């Protein structure tokens, strides 16, 4: 007796995509290194976590590696451990809305209540709490969050990234 699994081409394509999904959470291409142009470079997020929920810290740790890929044969030449990035309770982020960033108005009045000045300001929220909000409310996926923050990571660790 033989039992075969029959699946449609559409289902097979989904299975193939699942099988071919990389082991990383997110990757971003880097510009060519001025000394080593033979490598295509990318940063890869290999993991992320938060410390003990009972403790005082409110942080997210993001684990990052740099991959050097030989352009000639598209083979990974080297994986370099990058500094872990800590998004901590002191960081703030601009709050996204449907049409850009959410804004408020700072209004200055005199003693009589007369308006002296009004200034529009983009609203910000504590980063770790904002990240949790975005993910838990499904306003953004973890990949969207990592994409936004990795640009900041590159600016913060530019020297370490280019020291290969």
Structure explained in plain terms:
This protein is α+β, with helices and mostly antiparallel strands and 164 residues long. Helices cover 25% and strands 37% of the residues. The protein is built from 4 helices and 11 strands, in the order αβββββββββββααα. Strands 1, 2, 3, 4 and 5 form a 5-stranded antiparallel β-sheet that branches. Strands 6-11 form a two-stranded antiparallel sheet. A two-stranded antiparallel ribbon has the order 7-8. The radius of gyration is 23 Å and the shape is extended.
Could you name the key traits of this structure?
single chain, 164 residues, alpha+beta, five-stranded antiparallel sheet, two-stranded antiparallel ribbon, 11 strands, 25% helix, 37% strand
Overall SS class: alpha+beta
Helix content: 25-40%
Series of secondary-structure elements, N-terminal to C-terminal: HEEEEEEEEEEEHHH
Helical stretch tally: 4
- Low-confidence region ranges: none
A few lines on this structure:
This protein is of the alpha+beta class and 164 residues long. The chain has helices at 9-19, 127-136, 142-156, 158-162, and strands spanning 26-29, 39-49, 60-70, 76-81, 85-87, 92-94, 96-97, 100-101, 103-109, 115-122, 124-126. Strand 7 and strand 8 form a beta hairpin.
